[in-house]
Amino acid sequence: MTKPDAGWEDELRAALRAQLHDITTVPPWRQPTGAGRRVPQARWWVPLTAAAAVLVVVASVFITRTTIGSAPAHPSTTQPAPGPPTTATTSRGSTVGPPSRTASPARPAPSSSSPGVPVNTPTRRGPGATPTPSCGRTQLTVAYRGGGSGSGSDFGVLHIVNRSATACRLREVLTLTPLDASGAPIAVRPGWRSHVTAPGLVLAAREHLPAPGSPSAGGNWALLLLGGDPSHDTAGPDGQCPASKVAAPQLWRVSGAVDATVANSDPHAMPQHHRLTACNDTEGLQLGNVVYLNQP
Amino acid sequence: MTQAAEGSARCSLAEFARAEQVSLVRFAFLLCGDRHPAEDVVQDVLTAMFRRFGETLPLANPAAYARTAVVRANVSRMRRRSAGEVPRGVSAFAERAGEQAGAGYLGGRQEQMWASVCSLPARQRAAVVLRYYEDLTVADVAAVLGCPAGTAASLVSRAVRSLRNDIDLVEGRS
After folding, report:
1. Which residues touch A45 (CB under 8 Å, ≥6 apart)?
2. Model confidence pLDDT, tens digit, residues B11-37
3. What string of H, E and C letters represents the secondary structure of B84-134?
């Protein structure tokens, strides 16, 4: 260790003390308020841990719901009372305008505002979920159930159910064709959109068609909403469709993912809703675009 | 001065702060070279003591404990470099000292010493301050710094050598 001479040491001491001549008062230290001994220090990891826990819970719920959605089980959706989808409407413009989703009979929202229509919402497969096979044509059965009327339009619903032993996912395009009594297609207005793309619904196994008279209560099925406008004639002098032009298809043919022909008849519906009717004017049958009720 | 064993004596932290805060700030100032960081360091140390001990200090020598805490807090502060203090090299120190001497600065030599102290590494600087401002023995310096006495002696020795080299450089004796 260097041995500085005493004079140098004193000089160093004086140099250090000379720097302190103006430090005579300092802001007094104040005891922290609202805390006693061992005030907890800020724990930065607490919010991070909480956020991680929330993420884990959300991920678990998501995976669980996805897995359940892939399994053949009934969805926990609104279980409506029997009755027509009264919130769906078919406007006059919708029957003659270009095909679009907004120009078709509106799809009732899957909520309390659309009683009578159960909704099997599309499920999305998450990581780790078992893939659900696509539905084969032989697995599916179709039935027509009378809907009702609203805003001058008729409505009906096609139920597509899976009666096989395994759950399947409805993926393909479905095309609807109205047929007359001879089985010939009926001309429909230009721009009518006759097809819809299946939104990937998972249909539970061994499902049954809704019982007659209780058209849509609590099932696990795909639903196609059909609409017709029996009130308006695009070429009529007053725009009203005369009774002579009101027609009803005899059959509905569903092709694509399903290959079935069903009668446009539901004897258990209210008399005025046994069949879906539409004005068969010069443009053709005034049907509304086909829509899925199950679409999100 | 050694860190006292806990429980051998008791005093109020508030009283200790009132009595020792100025001297602690002066000590911290010599360690960090700036008054405001020195006040912050002392505030942090007193608050930490409150967190650890509460309102009553179970320490025989709380001043020694506080100085140890100040040294360690200052070393941590220097490591973080949050204060923005930039140690000056010998050349910058010599340049400044030469300017002051040329301007007839009366306190030139003390300022030169202080500037040289400020250029020391944190632990050497703490050793010098403890040894020559607090007038501690080498053993007590070691106790405050938390190192063996030989290490403390080495720190003081190297610091003094550096200071003398700086002064000699400025005064043209090297």
Report:
1. none
2. 889 889 999 899 999 999 999 888 888
3. CCCCCCHHHHHHHHHHHHHCCCCCHHHHHHHHHHHCCCHHHHHHHHHHHCC
Contacts of A193 (CB under 8 A, 6+ apart): A99, A100, A104, A289, A290
Question: In B, which residues are within 8 Å of A20 by CB distance?
Answer: 26, 29-30
The whole-model pTM stands at: 0.41
- For chain A, say whether B163 makes contact (Cβ under 8 Å): yes
Which residues make beta-bridge pairs with A178? A252
Is residue A281 within 8 A of residue A233, CB to CB? The reply is: yes
Q: Find the closest chain B residue to A37 by CA distance.
A: B54
pLDDT at residue number A57: 85
CA A171 to chain centroid: 15
Whose tokens are 């009327």? That residue is A149
- Which of B20, B25, B128 is the best mutation test for A, with the most CBs of A within 10 A? B25
Query: Is the CB of residue B151 less than 8 Å away from at least one CB of chain A?
Result: no
Residue in the structure block whose two tokens are 């069949």: A275
Residue ranges for chain B with pLDDT beneath 50: 1-8, 83, 87-94, 97, 100-106
ipTM: 0.76
